[in-house]
């Protein structure tokens, strides 16, 4: 067999997970981005060599290639493959709204692998970040002080990445009234005043415009929003993003 020149290097790394804090639900957050290193076949051969001195690295590479080809051929015949106890690769079919079929493949990890990962010693760097931010609420037709608006007026909520999107019923803007009956801001959700997407006269990533509903009477409020829009573009996420205005708003 011809000699195969490979560069081997072993790798160890941590996993970084960035989450967005859910301002409306205590103790909850939604993972949005996971960063990890990926080991290729050379990394795996390096690991084998370190624990099995004298093994033929080119032969390992050759056998791995043969195994890959056999797995691909088996999958292409519509048969699921149990990959050496790691889990199962299996063909699946996706059908869009127009009835168009698309063949794909999925992987289900085995119980052994799931248990191994539960007990794995991997350092996780958890960072909370905010994709969206709210700047202020102001009256649309004059330059009055921000965060102080009249009842039933046309108002603008400005910020970054705040476009309301998604067909979910909880998407929209929330006015959360201050209440002495519930120790300041600890107001039950049933008391939140919801402004749905269809009530917005302007719905942009940097600005939301709407009329204050009659339910928003004189008083002080927190403002929060829930959206399923992605931070960039017109994509819709499966999980909601929440953001809260830091300053309180006074309705006069």
Textual characterization of the structure:
There is one protein chain. This protein is an alpha+beta fold and 252 residues long. The chain folds into two domains: 15-128, Irregular (HU Protein, Chain A), CATH 4.10.520; 133-251, Coagulation Factor XIII, Chain A, domain 1 (Distorted Sandwich), CATH 2.70.50. The protein is built from three helices and 16 strands. The chain has helices spanning 41-51, 57-76, 111-118, and strands at 15-21, 29-35, 81-82, 87-95, 101-109, 124-128, 133-139, 148-149, 154-160, 172-177, 193-195, 200-203, 207-211, 219-229, 236-244, 249-251. Strands 8, 10, 11, 14, 15 and 16 form a six-stranded mixed β-sheet that branches. The longest helix has 20 residues, at 57-76. The chain starts with 14 loop residues before the first strand and ends with a strand.
